[in-house]
Design a protein that fits this description.
Helix content: 55-70%
Number of helices: 5
Order of helices and strands: HHHHH
Largest sheet: none
Strand content: under 5%
Number of strands: 0
Oligomer: single chain
Structural class: mainly alpha
Distance between the termini: 20 Å
Length: 106
């Protein structure tokens, strides 16, 4: 699919894309208190946080995310149906434009 996209855009289709870890995955926190500690604005928290070296902050952030990651929230079936109804014509038009089956989106 990426080669097709590159051809469509007129760029080198043999470009080697780099695989990266998923970013900003959605999930519900396992522990609400830890989630609040991580998101509440606090001058003291930021003073302490930014006194830690950047490389260590990244490790701490990743560890915290893994520790507090709960299950992915499910979309309400009625909301999914409503959004599908709203975007049905756009999805069908896109499907026709790119020549790929998008029925799984419907």
């Amino acid at each position: 699919m990426l080669r097709d996209l590159c051809r469509f855009l007129g760029v080198d289709e043999h470009f080697e894309f780099e695989k990266v870890e998923a970013q900003n995955r959605s999930s519900m926190p396992k522990f609400q208190v830890l989630g609040k500690v991580a998101t509440v604005e606090s001058k003291m928290k930021y003073r302490i946080w930014y006194s830690i070296p950047d490389s260590l902050r990244k490790k701490i952030r990743n560890w915290f995310s893994v520790l507090n990651e709960g299950k992915k929230p499910e979309m309400d079936p009625l909301m999914r149906k409503s959004l599908t109804d709203i975007y049905r014509e756009d999805i069908l038009a896109l499907q026709k434009l790119i020549g790929h089956d998008l029925t799984s989106w419907l």
